[in-house]
Amino acid sequence: MGDLQSLSELYQNKLFRIPDYQRGYAWKQEQLVDFWDDILNLQEDRYHYTGLLSLKAITKEELKGWSNDKWLLDSGYKAYHVVDGQQRLTTFSILINEIVSFVKGLECNNGKTDDEIVLCYQTLKAIRSKYISQKRPPQNLITTYLFGYEVDNPSTDFLTYKIFEEPFSGTVNETYYTKNLKYAKEFFLDCLKKLYAAEGIDGIEAIFRKITLQLMFNIHEIEDDYDVFVAFETMNNRGKKLTNLELLKNRLIYLTTLYDTDKLDAMDKAELRKQINDAWKEVYYQLGRNQDSPLSDDEFLRAHWIMYFQYSRQKGDDYIKFLLNKFSAKNIFNKQIVAIVEDEEIVDTDIEEDDDVIQPTEPEAETVTTTSKLEPKEIADYVNSLKSVAKYWFYTFFPETSDLSHEEKVWIERLNRIGIGYFRPLVAASLTPNANATPEERVEFFRAVERFIFLSFRMAAFQSSYKSSDYYRKTRDVYKGELSLSEVTKSLMETATGDMDYAIKNFMTRIDKRFSNGDGFYGWRDLRYLLFVMLYNNT
User: Fold this and answer.
1) Which residues contact residue 426 at a Cβ distance below 8 angstroms, ignoring those fewer than 6 apart?
2) N or C: where does the chain have the smaller number of CB atoms within 10 Å of the terminal CB?
3) 402: CB partners within 8 A, 6+ apart
């Protein structure tokens, strides 16, 4: 554990990068308000402990791909991965950048260069060079940012071009996490405007001094990969617990570091890690694609688990327990005792590593062999499945964005209108190529789902979990190509038809009660949907 350091001390000849296993920027209004209030209320003659900042020096091997940043590293800078504290460092970077931009945009500074504008006895050029970015002389064509994401992170371009405002004419994809970055930028700009209106440039200078000189960090350098991944899994940033999706990504990347080179060489490890990153990039993109209504990480992860692995009746977090147990370090290696008896090899697979027995009379014999239980291909297959399914999961919420037929889009909208419930994973599975279904077969399936929902839940008032286990299992069978969508449609029709008499009887009983209460049909909450269907069918 190092001594306490201010931000000014921390940014001495260092580059900071958010590694590929980290989540995106997760702070929202609540955390930003707390952060801003802490700074405003900090007395100018006091220091504030900001917490632990865990860093890991980036190896020379990892730096080989840093072609545009190499010039700064050659000049004495050292590069670090931010293991714990990325939310705070991201927030500091955004705020400092906004302070520089705000001061530069003041009317009194019109026509002045960054060399001519001074804040707290430092030019804006010097501030930008220390905390934000530097340009490679003499041409200044290459800009190196002192803080940022790994290149393959979906937030990389957004931070560079939308937050730090590097000139760029291309397309920058926006996600749930980039929306948070954008909000933080707008939040701090608004705060600075109000502060300037109340206190003038003195207020801005006070904030800058507090940020750079009075907020103190404990710096901890992590030595090896094991510590890195364990630290990440056990940490929580202020008010923002890691999601299951984030934990799983970290776990999978960690597992890639455990395979022996004879099982997974350096090139294959890099490729597997790339596939994991590509999968999460796509998942985050799809889940955050509609910025006004981002989709739930947990819902998607659980739905995919149902499709890919299994379904259990357990409640709560059974799916993530399954996944973290499946993709765990203990499943990478199975230590086996191998004793040499004459010409026959005897293998005992039940002995744990702590129970290894060495035969002193046969030192030449190799008594322990290592056999992989969890194959790298299993990890690759799983993450690539996540990657491919994410798009179809999004389509079940927003079918209008898909390339499905018009009729398919209409029917998915109808399912969302009536309340798709536990059928959403099955609907998503039906859209995948694995289902091998035609548009016509999908429409018939959607029609059967709507009929089932209406009769079973809207008329018969069955519990919302009625038959859920059965159709969750069918979800996996459809996704695995072991059950045709037509067979699922047949099952839905037969089940709903078999329940018809009860549904009608129960419906009439409940309607009678509503009439006796004076509500009549108006007390039936699904009347609106029935009228919608009737109107739609007549148009």
Assistant:
1) 449, 471, 472, 474, 475, 478, 488
2) C
3) 395, 408, 409, 431
| Cis status of the peptide bond prior to 138, with omega within 30 of 0 | yes
User: 36 by DSSP, 3-state: which?
Assistant: helix
Over the stretch 429-486, which tens digit does the pLDDT of each residue have?
A: 999 999 999 999 999 999 999 989 988 887 777 888 888 999 999 999 999 999 999 9
Q: Can you tell me which residue has the tokens 């940490």?
A: 235
Q: Are 120 and 205 in contact (CB under 8 A)?
A: yes
Tell me which residue has tokens 């306490």: 4
Tell me the sheet residues that pair with 337.
Answer: 348, 368
Q: Cα angle at 281 between 275 and 286, to 5 degrees?
A: 125
Find residue 341's DSSP bridge partners.
344
- Separation of alpha carbons 294 and 8, rounded Å: 37
Q: So what's the pLDDT on residue 517?
A: 66
Backbone φ and ψ for 100, nearest 5 degrees, come out as -60, -45
The answer to whether 473 and 518 are in contact (CB under 8 A) is no
Contact criterion met (CB below 8 Å) for 26 and 230: no
pLDDT, mean of residues 44-68: 83
Query: CA of 137: how far to CAs of 99, 116, 128, 134, 148, in Å?
Result: 25, 20, 15, 9, 21
Both tokens of residue 403? Answer: 């390339």
**Whether pTM exceeds 0.85:** no
What tens digit of pLDDT does each residue of 298-315 get? 999 999 999 999 776 655
